[in-house]
Design goal:
The protein contains 5 helices and 5 strands. By secondary structure, the protein is α+β, with helices and mostly antiparallel strands. Strands 1, 2, 3, 4 and 5 form a 5-stranded antiparallel sheet that branches. The two termini are 24 Å apart.
């Protein structure tokens, strides 16, 4: 599922990408899926105007699954490759993978340079047992 989400990003299928975002995060996003997809498209255009484009995205290995608060949760590193005027750059972010149906479907939440403590203020069902290293840029 994480690879599928990366594929949507690469194909600029922002609505499909937004559909794989953690439902509780989308509930906090004014405008929902449509607004998130529009925002991602605008971001892509702004990056392109600066000569930056996403040329690759792939997930790393998932952590162990934690069963908590009626959800299965794990973390997955995500690597995003950029082409930019100063040369190629790959950055790594951390995704929370969350399933509310015992693993049949998965949704994702990006750590977004936040600590687990900060993210848990918005999403208190995230387990404190996750090992969250600092985001690498």
């Amino acid at each position: 599922a994480a690879q599928k989400m990366c594929d949507h990003l690469l194909k600029k299928e922002y609505y499909k990408f937004a559909q794989m975002t953690y439902t509780r995060a989308m509930e906090k996003n004014e405008g929902g899926l449509t607004e998130m997809a529009r925002f991602m498209g605008a971001q892509e255009q702004a990056m392109a105007a600066q000569g930056v484009s996403v040329v690759g995205a792939y997930p790393g290995d998932a952590s162990g699954i934690i069963d908590t608060a009626g959800e299965l949760q794990c973390t997955i590193p995500q690597h995003v490759k950029l082409k930019q005027p100063s040369g190629p750059h790959t950055y790594r972010t951390l995704l929370f993978a969350i399933s509310r149906d015992k693993g049949k479907t998965w949704q994702f939440l990006d750590l977004r340079d936040m600590t687990l403590t900060e993210l848990r203020k918005e999403f208190p069902t995230l387990s404190t047992k996750h090992n969250v290293p600092p985001t690498q840029r």
